User: Which sequence fits this backbone?
RNA sequence: GCCAAUGUAGCUCAGCGGUAGAGCAGCCGAUUCGUAAUCGGCAGGUCGUCAGUUCGAAUCUGACCAUUGGCUCCA
């Protein structure tokens, strides 16, 4: 998204297309009420309150009518009106009246947020449609290319985005300068579907979610579990090499624990109902922090012990509303690669530096190089002393600067217990996903009242940092699948090479090759089926196996394998030992492709 | 949770009032082949679940469950 999207012709075009659509809808439903209809990233939408639900056939009709309106080449005419005049123009449009009142009351925009400048009320007329609108628009409907507009789908949307308000029908459309760009956009959507982790999860037999088990509860199949195992092993090695200590904690804890932590006050609606036994209530854990704190509290801690870094791949359960689950990216049971750092105030800047650069190192190791950072600061309602907030925010910001990481400020976007840095990554199609989070916590040290003994012999409260790098391993895996389109780098591939004997007489040799490679620690299999070589290649390609090793008479004679990459590239015949060296190098260097 | 759509064999889908079909995958057999699908045969389904309407329901109705696209929420 370019920064001046709002000044672009594309923006005006989409905004204008939204008006044309609204006109077509109102012609079809004269009693319909209109809400708002702005341009969005790849198109536009308009929200309506209509007498009945829209059908796909309605959309076709509306789209056809839009083309007629475009061909009529009606001008868009802007007028400025007083609030009183506006009220008269829109007297049968309650949502517009509400908007007018917002403008009149000293500036509230269409989303209900206050705006600074004194608003001018403007309307735009085009043909039979009049809309309360700040613009801007094209000069005429004819400037929209009728072949570059398409209505995409209908969705429910609450008026002003508030679930207490009535639900409207939102029609999403897309519009481009040329039919070619529309075609490209639709092609991009098709490509995105091919990379969808849910589709690839099935095709590559990576994971599933079973109705019998429950919604949002992931089953990792052998192939997916292999990738996870390899990712976790790397994660473990890196943590051990970087001053972390591993801990393990249970899945449930007593109600009092969650009362102390504040979860029952602030997080209860995301928690599963308690399990009662021997008159005690136990809750399934939605987070790991209280357990790690109890470990910290289990002994007297000296400043000499700090910083302490407790890490755990902790499986947590959170109740998510039924409509929000999404493949691996939003689930009810997931494993966080969690850690809690305890340090002195003096150590804090260095600790932040460390955890930020460690996060980046981990993400980059998985091929994520386009990383976007967000710094979220103190919200209105916040626990802890404002001075400590300022320190912590400054430390986070300084760290981002030292890491030379571009970041955006999310003013007031911190958690109630502390400011944070979130790292988001883009997949190949430009969608942004949050993985890592580095959060300060001023709340739990107070609530659990834990301390360390400083040089002067007195007890002080340590600073506490929560962090998750992959975030949730489920989500991380989902994004990893989409990032690579299922073609994992060699070091992560469940099967790294398939050996393809051309005829049965080559099977024995194929097995020998397999043994040599397996002994070297490579994951290989032999396709011994009596199918033709071409069929075996096709299957291996579809399973996105990095290397296909064809063995026939020639190879058998020379102790070679003929190598084909999943990209289709042919490397030709190579000694078995040379291939072994090549593959091991790929693994060691985490080569992609 | 809300709005809408969808749910038929392992997968992708057709059938839409007269008791279930294809391709791929699977199994069996034949084939032994040089860089993206060899041929033939066999087997496979309480048509999401539970009610209801009907002489008769995969097909119509309702409730529930799940999925998809949004909204809200979360991060």
Assistant:
């Amino acid at each position: 998204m370019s920064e001046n999207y709002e000044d672009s012709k594309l923006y005006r075009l989409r905004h204008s297309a939204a008006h044309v659509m609204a006109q077509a809808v109102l012609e079809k439903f004269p009693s319909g009420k209109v809400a708002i209809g702005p341009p969005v990233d790849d198109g536009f939408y308009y929200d309506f309150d209509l007498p009945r639900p829209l059908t796909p056939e309605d959309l076709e009709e509306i789209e056809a009518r839009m083309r007629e309106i475009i061909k009529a080449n009606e001008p868009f005419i802007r007028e400025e009106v007083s609030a009183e005049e506006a009220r008269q123009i829109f007297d049968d449009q309650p949502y517009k009246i509400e908007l007018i009142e917002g403008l009149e009351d000293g500036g509230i925009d269409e989303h209900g947020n206050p705006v600074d400048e004194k608003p001018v009320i403007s309307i735009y007329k085009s043909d039979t449609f009049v809309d309360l609108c700040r613009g801007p628009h094209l000069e005429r409907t004819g400037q929209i290319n009728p072949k570059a507009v398409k209505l995409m789908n209908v969705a429910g949307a609450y008026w002003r985005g508030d679930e207490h308000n009535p639900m409207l029908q939102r029609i999403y459309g897309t519009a481009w300068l040329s039919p070619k760009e529309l075609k490209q956009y639709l092609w991009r959507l098709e490509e995105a579907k091919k990379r969808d982790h849910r589709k690839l999860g099935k095709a590559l037999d990576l994971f599933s979610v079973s109705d019998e088990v429950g919604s949002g509860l992931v089953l990792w199949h052998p192939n997916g579990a292999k990738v996870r195992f390899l990712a976790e092993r790397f994660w473990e090695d890196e943590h051990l090499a970087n001053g972390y200590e591993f801990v393990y904690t249970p899945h449930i804890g007593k109600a009092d624990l969650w009362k102390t932590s504040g979860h029952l006050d602030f997080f209860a609606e995301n928690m599963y109902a308690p399990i009662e036994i021997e008159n005690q209530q136990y809750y399934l854990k939605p987070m790991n922090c209280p357990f790690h704190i109890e470990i910290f509290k289990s002994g007297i801690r000296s400043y000499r012990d700090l910083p302490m870094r407790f890490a755990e791949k902790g499986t947590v359960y959170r109740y998510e509303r039924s409509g929000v689950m999404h493949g691996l990216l939003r689930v009810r049971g997931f494993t966080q690669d969690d850690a809690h750092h305890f340090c002195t105030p003096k150590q804090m800047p260095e600790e932040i530096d460390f955890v930020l650069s460690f996060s980046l190192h981990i993400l980059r190791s998985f091929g994520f190089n386009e990383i976007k950072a967000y710094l979220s600061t103190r919200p209105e309602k916040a626990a802890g002393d404002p001075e400590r907030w300022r320190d912590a925010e400054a430390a986070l910001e300084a760290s981002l600067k030292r890491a030379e990481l571009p970041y955006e400020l999310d003013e007031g976007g911190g958690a109630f217990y502390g400011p944070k840095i979130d790292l988001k990554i883009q997949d190949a199609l430009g969608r942004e996903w949050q993985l890592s989070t580095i959060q300060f916590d001023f709340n739990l040290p107070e609530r659990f009242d834990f301390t360390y003994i400083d040089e002067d012999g007195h007890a002080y409260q340590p600073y506490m940092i929560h962090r998750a790098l992959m975030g949730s391993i489920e989500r991380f895996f989902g994004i990893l699948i989409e990032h690579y389109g299922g073609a994992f780098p060699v070091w992560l591939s469940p099967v790294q090479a398939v050996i393809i004997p051309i005829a049965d007489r080559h099977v024995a040799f194929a097995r020998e090759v397999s043994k040599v490679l397996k002994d070297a620690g490579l994951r290989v299999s032999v396709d011994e089926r009596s199918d033709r070589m071409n069929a075996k290649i096709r299957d291996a390609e579809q399973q996105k196996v990095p290397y296909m090793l064809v063995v026939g008479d020639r190879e058998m004679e020379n102790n070679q394998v003929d190598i084909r990459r999943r990209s289709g590239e042919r490397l030709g015949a190579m000694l078995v030992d040379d291939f072994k060296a090549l593959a091991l190098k790929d693994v060691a260097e985490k080569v992609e492709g």
